[in-house]
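From the shared-data thread, chain only:
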Amino acid sequence: MDQTPPDSGKNPRPVVKAKVGEPIRIQWMFTNVYPHKTLQNVVVHFYIAREEKVGQKELPDLRGDDVFLESAFDMDFKPGAKAGQRNTLRFDAPGVYLVRVESRLTQSDHEHFSAIDLVIEKGKP
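Structure, as tokens:
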């Protein structure tokens, strides 16, 4: 877990490696830890996008063709509420990808996110 600003966070991202064609399961969960505060109209945004290199500081442009997967939803996030998603996917070409889930519009001076760099290597799974 990390927080913005800056957009890329304060901590280095972990790196996970996988092979082309290998099934990859990604699961994430957000929890509202405020015991008495409902966060209204919070956006939870998840995406996987191609990067140029591991540890890249600039976030990818999500308007281009480099987005592998993206989902978002808005909700009233009640105290103790959880929101999550699980995906199983395969990559058919090698490359470096940013996997990121983030909060948006929490009416705070910062947002939270979690991210990893996923390196897809050539070879059979």
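The two ends are 29 Å apart (CA to CA).
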